[in-house]
Amino acid sequence: MAKKMSETTCEDFVGALAAKTSVPGGGGASALVGAIGVALCSMVGNFTLGRKKYAHFEADVNRMLGEGESIQKDLLALIDEDAKAFEPLSKAYAIPKDDPKREVIMEKALMDASMAPLNIMRKCCEAIDLLEEMLEKGSVMLISDVGCGALFAKAALLGASLNIYINTKSFSNRAEAEKIEAEVTAMIESYTKKADQIAAAVSLKIRGEA
Length: 210
Prior knowledge:
The protein is mostly helical. The protein is built from six helices and no strands.
C-alpha cells in the first residue's frame, strides 16, 4: 500500500510540493499549515497542564487538548482527501469539449474538488477559536506560540479559499457556486479578523504594552 502524503517526512512532502506533479498542491499545503497551527495550540496546553498557576483552567485545557488533537487529525487526513479529489478533476478536463457527458462529469469533479479545501477552512476556523481560548487560559510563557498558531491557521484558511474559488468559477450551477462562495467569504471575514486580533494581542503582551 502506498504511503499517505500525510505520513511522509517533512523533506519528502516539501520535495513533492516542489516537483512537477499536480499533487500535493496548495490545498494539501494549506491543510498541513493548519495542522501545524493547531498543534502549536496543543503544545501550549500540554505545557500549561500541571502548573499550579493554571490549576483552575485544567479542565478547560484538557478539553482543548482533546479538541485540538481531533482538528489536527482531520486536517492531516484532508491532505490526502485533497489529493484524491484532484485526479478525477484532471481527467474531466481531458474529456473532449464535444463529449455530451463532459459537463456532468466536470461539474461533479469540480464539486468534489471543492469539498476538501472547504473542510480545511472549516477546521481552521475551529483551530482559531481554540487558539483564542488558549490565549486566555494557556501559559504566558508560550504566548508567542499561540500567536504563531493563529497566523498559521489564518494562512491555511486563506490558502484553502483560493483552491475553492478556482473551482467554483467553473461551476455550471451558479446557485451552488454562490452558496459555497458565501460560506467561504463569511469564514474569511470573521476568522482572519479573529486571527489578527489574537496575533496583535500576543504582540502587545510580548512587548509589555498590554
